[in-house]
Amino acid sequence: MSSAILLAQAGRAENLSIFDPASPQAGAIRDLAFVVLAITVVIFLLVEGVLLYSIVRFRHTKTVNATEPPQVYGSHAIEIAWTVAPALIVLVLILVVARTEWEVQKDPPAPKAGDNALYVTVAGRQWWWEYRYDYYNGDKLNFVTANELHVPASDADASGVQRPVYLTLLSADVCHSFWVPRLAGKTDLLPGRTNKMWFQTAERGLFLGQCAEFCGTQHAKMLIRVNVDAPADFEKWYKNEQGDARTPVATNVQAGQAMFFKQSCVNCHRIQGTTANGTYAPDLTHLMSRQTLASGIMPNTAENLRLWVADPQKIKPGCLMPAFGLSSQEVDGIVAYLRSLE
Questions:
Q1: pTM of the full structure
Q2: What gap in Å lies between CA 321 and CA 342, rounded to an integer?
Q3: HSE-up of 68 (CA within 13 Å, CB side)?
């Protein structure tokens, strides 16, 4: 079901295909896949060709003149051939894989002014993604969001300005794997270990991905959304994300805020500019700037948000947010407040 939702949101199945790369890194991985496929197809055809020839040439017959193939024992030529040939094939595969890894993996340089580079720390959690924006173009950003990653596009025109995206990958609990097929390869997020990955793309739009390492009961509902924005749009987006949450004006929103702060929500969630400073659950400062809820599994609408606040276990069983037994009035008030966080 999650895959169907993801495909519907993508608008086309190619959004998940490694054979439709949108970045040089994904293109290198596709080319490697073609090379490996070509080598293995040739091996398959040779082996199956010899097998079929032998079946036809030396098939069982009742005729007296049936010939038996010559028996070969201790042939040095054959032994050398079946040792050298696989060794050469393995050597070629090692070389092409090493070359691809050299192209798609590298340690990020230190941030500096004018580098047009974006640095983001990604933390995998059960079952959502935390994005801590560190630097862009040498400037310190220092804000946190969840589940929807926004990055700037490189220029596709003659100017050719590159805007690389460097991700530092961490795990807050168990093993996860960050995979957006059209942008880059899979990279694991492991407890106690820091991994790196990077990509850049001139193609704008939404790119989808999936946690590719089984991480618990809701692993299939740990989706990834990467929005590649025009540089001007990205700058507008991150400046809004850096700001504090809006102060409620409407009476019902103020009442909803009071209800929110009476609950234990503030122990896990953070809303910048308020006393809610939790770090265990998604940052809600600009919740309504996101298109989806619960790590991409449903649209961010008032009705879906109400269902989630009322009982998240019905939507994502086993998630770490319990149902608090709120009354309908309390749910409506909290939803009204959350809907004001743009």
A1: 0.85
A2: 22
A3: 4
User: SS3 for 173?
Assistant: coil
Whether the predicted pLDDT of 5 surpasses 50: no
Q: Measure the CA–CA gap between 242 and 332, rounded to whole angstroms.
A: 27
User: What is the residue-averaged pLDDT of the chain?
Assistant: 89
Give the Cα separation of 276 and 244 in Å (integer).
Answer: 12
Of the CATH numbers 2.160.20.10, 3.40.1180.10, 3.10.20.90, 2.60.40.420, which one belongs to the domain with range 118-242?
2.60.40.420
CATH 2.40.30.10 matches 251-338:
no
**Residue 224 · residue 178 · CB < 8 Å:** yes
Beta-bridge partners for 301: none
- pLDDT per residue as tens digits for the range 269-318: 999 999 999 889 999 999 999 999 999 999 999 999 999 999 999 999 99
% of the chain residues with pLDDT over 90: 70
pLDDT tens digit sequence for 21-36: 999 999 999 999 999 9
pLDDT of 8 above 50: no
**What is the gyration radius of the CA atoms in the chain, in angstroms?**
27
CA angle at 181 for the pair 175 and 185, rounded to the nearest 5°: 55
Helix (H) or strand (E) segment spanning residue 171? strand 165-171
